[in-house]
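Quiz preparation item.
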């Protein structure tokens, strides 16, 4: 009877950061900072980026027709040639990365996270005739900044963790005697409940400061937030995107001088507006949250990232 040598595959480990993405070169620093914080806390593991937004990737695809322009502006080749989740995960598999933790950098469980979850579930369902030829040993999905449903990790604790990172903004709002207004992306097709809960936790944590979180898409929108601020008698506003990057929405929907922007709407209502156009990913403390999410997800699934 012939004996066959037992076959095995190389099984390297990787982390795939799944960002919504941005078209603003200046905003890419927030995404790179997240990777920097992850690498600092989880050394020796491959960490790559992908963009989940089809619209954002299409814009970068068009820009590749004139690559020198964007490279000269300091855009890294990895972002100029950014891939979607399936392309990035395929490249990892081709490189023998068969244990992959997918870390979304989405703010909450909305449309982008739900679609990403579906893709990861599909990969997890692959069953080859011989297990040794399975494309992955493990592909697991971590959770967004404000958490998600499930019994392993209480989403209210995730919200509390995020809500405690805004003391700098709170102190500046107190100096200005201003309402502190954050603007999230939101979504017309998903509840914005996680943002409402975050706002309530922030109000409890920072008493004496008027705090609002509004949505570019969904509710409460700009009219409701402006009415809430002016109705309280406030005449000053500190305005900041509640987003990973300060990209298109931040510069055009929030801080633009056009009357249709959030800044313009507040000014039209008689408020003095100070803006802080910095994505949350640029804050080291916020970016480090994703490293902790990854380590917790690894422990949940028996993946040793630190040995």
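Solution:
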């Amino acid at each position: 009877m012939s004996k066959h040598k037992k076959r095995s595959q190389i099984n390297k480990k990787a982390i795939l950061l799944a960002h919504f993405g941005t078209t603003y070169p200046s905003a890419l620093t927030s995404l790179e900072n997240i990777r920097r914080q992850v690498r600092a806390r989880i050394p020796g593991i491959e960490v790559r980026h992908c963009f989940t937004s089809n619209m954002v990737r299409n814009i970068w695809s068009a820009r590749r027709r004139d690559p020198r322009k964007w490279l000269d502006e300091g855009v890294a080749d990895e972002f100029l040639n950014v891939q979607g989740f399936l392309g990035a995960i395929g490249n990892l598999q081709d490189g023998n990365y068969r244990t992959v933790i997918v870390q979304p950098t989405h703010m909450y469980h909305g449309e982008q996270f739900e679609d990403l979850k579906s893709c990861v579930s599909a990969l997890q369902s692959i069953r080859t005739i011989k297990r040794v030829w399975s494309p992955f040993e493990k592909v697991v999905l971590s959770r967004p900044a404000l958490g998600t449903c499930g019994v392993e990790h209480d989403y209210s604790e995730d919200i509390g963790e995020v809500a405690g990172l805004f003391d700098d903004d709170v102190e500046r709002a107190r100096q200005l005697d201003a309402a502190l207004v954050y603007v999230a992306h939101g979504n017309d097709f998903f509840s914005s409940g996680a943002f409402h809960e975050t706002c309530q936790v922030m109000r409890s944590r920072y008493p004496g400061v008027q705090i609002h979180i509004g949505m570019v898409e969904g509710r409460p929108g700009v009219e409701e937030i402006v009415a809430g601020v002016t109705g309280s008698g406030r005449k000053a506003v500190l305005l900041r995107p509640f987003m990973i990057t300060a990209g298109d929405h931040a510069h055009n929907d929030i801080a633009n001088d056009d009357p249709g922007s959030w800044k313009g709407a507040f000014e039209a209502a008689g408020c003095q507006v100070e803006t802080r156009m910095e994505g949350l990913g640029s804050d080291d403390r916020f970016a480090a949250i994703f490293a902790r999410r990854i380590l917790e997800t690894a422990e949940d699934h028996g993946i040793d990232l630190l040995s």
